[in-house]
Prior knowledge:
Blueprint: H1 2-12, H2 19-40, H3 50-55, H4 76-90, H5 97-101, H6 121-133, H7 138-143, H8 148-160, H9 162-165
Amino acid sequence: MTAFLEVLAPSFGDRPRDVAEENLQARCRAALLMALSNKLGHLLLTTGNKSELAVGYCALYGDMSGGLAVISDVPKTMVYALATEINERAGRALIPQSTIDKPPSAELRPDQLNADSLPPYPVLDELLANHIEGHRSRAELVVLGHEPALVDRVLALIRANEYKRTRAAPGIKITGKAFGRGRRVPLAARWTD
């Protein structure tokens, strides 16, 4: 990270640290992991779940790097449920309980939490399921009881991050409507549903 920042210093100048440096951390890790993948002949798996991919909580050429997006069609709340189920079936903590209990965070800046800028995942996942898999419009989401301002914000995030999803590794489809071939929308012309 220090080497990258030194190279970028003349261009970055005195601008304050922001999302550019945050995403750079993920891209540095991705470069190292992809090098190991290439050298050792292993398949790098991406880490983004459906909730994160929907709203763009993933760094292009960072945590999106890899050859297979194993959980790209698994909502965040289901990721936690699966982790708990795996531990219960194993009779021990194959996935550390601290990982399950820890509040979600990209961990790209001190004390960062996803809840600082996203609704709680149960709320977000319900809204995403109704919109993506249920094909419900903005008006229908509001009738279902979702806060209008939240609906507008989430739908804007979904639209704004379609370009990232077109660059994502292929994923495993588990729901009725996965991103990718199962859901094609325009990238330009300010498209809305």
